[in-house]
Amino acid sequence: MKHLARQLPAIHELQKHQRFEEIMGAYHLTSQQLTAMLKHVVASVREQLLAGDDEISLAPGNIDGELFHQLEAYARKEASVKLQHVINGTGTVLHTNLGRARLSGQAQKKVIEAASSYTNLEYQLHSGKRGSRHDLIEAALREVTGAEAAIVVNNNAAAVYFVLSALARGKEVIVSRGELVEIGGSFRVSSIMEESGAVLKEVGTTNKTHLYDYEQAITAETALLMKVHTSNFKMIGFTEAVPAKELKPLADANNLPLFEDLGSGVLYDFKQKGIGSEPTVREAIAQGADLVSFSGDKLLGGPQAGIIAGKKKWIDRLKKHQLARVLRVDKMTLAALEATLAHYRDEEEALTEIPTIRAVLLTQEEVFERIERFQIALDPAWKTDVTESFSQVGGGTMPEVQLPTYVLLLTHPIWSANELQRELRNGSPAVISRIVNEQVALDFRTIEENEQSALHQRLQECIKERSVK
């Protein structure tokens, strides 16, 4: 590998190559722009060679060809729109890095309508006067959650920050030590609380917290009691936690609101299908929480949003707070959320129309049938195998749940598994896969029927690209 690093051509030599001119013209780049990209590619290849990286494929007689292959891929990537369609072959339904929940067809339609026209976002059609965007979605949220009132902000971390800042700034918030979770991107409940101006008061131990721990911690400086649902991890063994229904009488006796951060907002009860143990939002409201916050783009299956539902007394205070404007959502988010919530009026409609619910409930046999249909049109040059595996729900939800699935294993004589995975990832559309036993694995739980033709085409392009190269 290291001897090949010494054979890499100089930049000025590569600039004279015909392929340099062709790539510059194909992607409408200046010589200066493409030269900067070329320097990046050569430096990256040199670094990989010196590190002995197995993923790099560089034959002594085809160094220029490999460099220009990588240069074109890099130019294509830089010249393209940054937010792109990705085929998710990982089997992780709520893949945070890939955008979490897909919207239903109706939600997509409503987003386009809202984006392409004027709307009554803050306008009362019946009176002709200024209205509030909060009113557009509140009735639907009351209906599906059983709460008295609700408000929507831009994500659940914002929802938690909003509640703490508006109701507990400069005051104490009592939380069990076992619930001081860290969510994706190293955001911690304790850090959000600190930023909000609330004062964290930890009670209990990591594995056990009792009702008397909360009771003994309440002082004149206490603003609220907070529960955080540990949706992204599970503690087992010698553990104990105080449910909201037991905390509620204590909160009421001290005139304190009880706030529960659910994290993932579940409106469809997956427990009835034997999947996980996530409480529904309606259950959390029924257990007595004065305020409940949850995400819109996780198991609810809608757009990114933070939803706060609960008692009207507290929601009204949030609506009047200055942060309500800072954290508000736009018309496209409200349109998508309203359409998604409408599906929940009929359970059968929610099961068939919301992609997230559909994917989680997909049986192992149904995944196998998808793979069979895909294999029929697959180029015989690909060697395939089908094996049992497990999918994940993802998005920091149901960490203990493994969904039985099948994966398609792909190999080809001209590709190593790492090379093929990289090539699929860098194409258009990008295909994100896993590697299992030195083979590229595609889980069809997260590959919809309408994406199969694009996946077929992408696999064919891989063969052609390597042949040209």
Description:
Helix 12 (281-286) links the parallel strand 9 and strand 10. Helix 8 (156-168) crosses helix 9. The chain is elongated, with a radius of gyration of 27 Å. The chain is built from 20 helices and 16 strands. The protein has helices at residues 2-5, 11-15, 18-26, 31-51, 63-79, 105-115, 133-145, 156-168, 189-196, 211-217, 244-253, 281-286, 312-320, 323-326, 331-343, 347-353, 355-361, 364-376, 417-425, 452-468, and strands at 86-88, 92-94, 149-153, 172-176, 182-183, 187-188, 199-203, 222-228, 258-264, 291-295, 306-310, 383-394, 403-411, 430-432, 434-436, 439-443. It folds into three domains: 2-79, no CATH class; 86-98 and 358-468, Aspartate Aminotransferase, domain 1 (Alpha-Beta Complex); 105-353, 3-Layer(aba) Sandwich (Aspartate Aminotransferase, domain 2). The strands form four sheets. A seven-stranded mixed sheet has the order 3-11-10-9-8-4-7, sandwiched between helices. Strands 2-12-13-16-15 form a five-stranded mixed sheet. 43% of the residues lie in helices and 17% in strands. With 469 residues, the chain is of the alpha/beta class.
